[in-house]
Specification:
The chain is built from 38 helices and 26 strands. It is an alpha/beta fold.
Length: 1039
Amino acid sequence: MSIQFVFGLSGTGKTEYLIDKVTNLGYEQKIFYIVPEPEVICMQKKIIAHKKSKGLINIEVLSFEKLIYRVFEEVGLYRENKIDKLQNSMLITKILLENKKLNINKNYITEMCKVISEFIKYNIGPEFLENKIKGLRDQNEELFYKISEIKKIYESYLIHTDNLNMIPEQSIELIIDKINEVEIINNAVFCIDEFYDFSPFQLEIIKALLNISKHMYMTLPMEAKSDKKFASIVKTIGDLKYFCIVKNIKVEDDIYLKQNKRYERIQDIAHLEKNFLRDKVEKFDGDPINVCCSSASNVYEEVEYVTMEVLKLVHSGNYRYKDIAIAYSNQGSYKDELLKVLNDSRIPVSFIYKDNITNYSLVRFVLTVFEVLKNDFDHESVNKYLKTNYANISEDDASQLDKYILSYGIKGYETWVKDKWNYEYMNKYSQDKDGESINIFKNKVIEPFVNLNNKLETNEIKTVEKYTLYLYEFLEEVGVPEKVKDKYNHEIYGEYNIKLIQVWNQLVQALDSIIKVVGKEEVTIEQYMSILDIAINNITDDEKNDFIDAALVEDVKKIMVSDKKVLFLLGVNDGYIPEKKSFAGLLNREERDFLYEVGINIERYNEDKIYEEQIQLYTTTMKAEEKVYFSYALQDTEGKSINPAMFINKLKKMFEKLIISKYEKIENKTDGKSTCSKEMYKLTSDVVGTLYPGDIRMSATSLQDYAMCPFKFFAKYNLKALEKQVYRLQNLDIGKLYHAILNMFFEKINAEDIDIADLNEEKIRIILDELICEYIMENNIFSANSKYKFITSSLKNILLKSIKVMTEHINAGDFAPTYFELGFSTDGILKPLKIDIDNGKQIIMNGKIDRVDLLKRDGKTYVKVIDYKSGNMKFDIEDVNDNVNMQLVLYMMAILEDKGFAKDSEVLPAGVFYFKIGNKKIKLEDSNIDNIEDLLKKKYKMSGLIIGDKDMAKSMDKEMEAKSNIIPVEFKKDGELTKKSSVTGVEEFYKIIEQMKENITQIGKEILEGNVEAKPYKKGSIKACEYCEYKDICGIDVR
């Protein structure tokens, strides 16, 4: 029995030294080569490739984890006996239930599992804990009770694992006991390589192996003279050497390797390696060609920069993807963004990932079964259930049923078990007029739930086992096993079907584990749902996404960079790399320090831990053979400022000529598009011909939608991609009510020949009550619940105030309201508006004008157009020219272009206005309490354009003096209009119309050319993407 330590910094040939040693041994000598788990395959390749190699006939390359499995297999304890993550969580759940803990909290159980695993890892037993915390009560009572609770659960945990014949993770006593029984290990040679330090658990394994081995080699990354950064390694070496002295194990002379062989020809990286761990660094004279550093505004741009650099390296022809490693900080949400961008850029990646099986619809289906019943068939639960496509109806039928229940707000178990649903306008979603199909779908869905509910309502005791059996019977009743089998046998599913079978088997095993561990416990349905959720979320399913030629992507703490030519290190920020651990679980940082003081040595963040992480970072970085890229961001994913790590300053001192490149992203994706790229946003002539076989029919709204963004127009009007209709009161419903009631109001007073001048608030209220009652009878959404009834009452008050102000506006001028919802279309009073494009085609526009007021004077008819708005729309001539505020001018154009309008006189434009309907609020101050009425009038002032002169303005507000409270007009002292007044001449207005015609013609040409580019309008407060319902699918980056 003997041991020899081999020391040397990165690149000095420690691994080569060991391989040389073991390949010189004969075939008869059994050799175990122990490396970190990710290094196993790489080390196997290195041994096979060695010039003296005899292959792996007598050499086994293992990790500590695989060595333990090897030991267990030799003594007949197979993996089935080892407790897994799922069983761990179930055991803790069982213990909590036994102790009458009614609230089964997933996060608490997860954290408790971690703490118990940590105690086992550090070989801390319940008795040891009890002895150490005796004097803790007087010093820290809260911590004393917390550790006492943990100890109690820990004690029960060990008892249960023993009773269930399970092996706790990292059960050191059992492992050491079994190591001594394994003949194949006895008298073997062990090589322990590629580690920079060891956990207490690993050290105990090493000591056990030393007792039975013939010889052990151990490499560690350290110089002969080491500073305090290596204190942890020095302590480990001292501990092992002392153990060898006590056990009479020979310690051979240490080997120190000094010459750096890896970077003999790469001076800048050799300089980086030499100074990486030093406090005082030496300066590099030349330009660092192979050491690069960059900064980016945020994490997203940093990831994009790295992606671009990877592509550059590969396209240069000097590197393949498999030569590149990308290490990222575990902080800052790098992983998901990195994998997304690399995938979008078609860069193949190799990475180990934890496949969350809750992403599979099969698993989500299982989780929603009891949720539907517990939540009394609310839409959210039913929707989740139907969307999985495992309910006993087809995907299309489920979609129709979901739209139906959403549209009519159907919820409640009692509503679902009704014999028949028969709601109005059902054929909006279905072709069958009598609703038979919807009821067939409904009955198929509810039947297994009725059977499940009947079982739950029986008087028998409900244990975890009972609930689990009910669940499995439900799955069989809806045909889940058959559906999984059918998908597996269907060729179209490819690799997915294999994974689906694995997920189904994992689910069944999870249900078995639930019954095995906690089956006899009596629980409520809520507790069972928590248990099921915890079990499924603790199914361990690590997978490796691997390709022959792929870039390696991994967390900087886990990545192994052997045989990689280039390393990218992302997130070199303060607190990210090295990571500043917070310990936010059951035991925080301060509590861990306190426990250390009383002799309970578990993981904590101290000076040794900081140095350990620096050595780990050094070891990772200096495995790159040719190039190293460091990068950092200035903002995190939430927009908060973050600082570069101190190492960046150190890097600048090492390389004075190092240029920190700054990556700046193109602000808008459309700005950088090439002509080729823009062509991708065009429809083919055949598709355009299919969409528009004749003229293009549009409205003011659709024209504005195109101007806002061609893609939005395409999605809305060509694809007809509309949002789901939801049974709730929306702004659109309120807008429709406003328009309908105002139209009905003015039509009624015209029909009954009521003089507007005679209308007072009480008369308006009486008419409104009648009209709103009539409207609500036809639109029952407004009376669906007490909340909506209250809203409707508020809307009535808003309309009352608005109509009162409108009547005051009308009475203040000479214009008379004449037309309401005046249509311009083939069957309207006005003809549709037609504008020529090319090739004999036209744009034909239809629409409705909310209100048209007329003034007949001197044989001429003056027209005032008013459009009602419930939003904050304001008239701006620049917006008109940009085609994003076209309605008012377009409406006036429709009237002026129609030769049949007012045949007996010349028709002239007088004004176009927006009247905002809303609840106006004013700030009351001592100085203006007496002027409330005037202030309110100002709030209702219309936005728009007066066409004509000051006389025309006065014909709209005869009462105004210096300033109008009705229209946007002000007068100077000399009686002339101010520059603030929104007034234009008739000729100038006709020029605006002509310009609009040209703009519409251009829009028509672009539509016929097939332009559907995602190019949103953005100017001032108008941002097309802000409320766009298609922003999630267009591909535009709105960040």
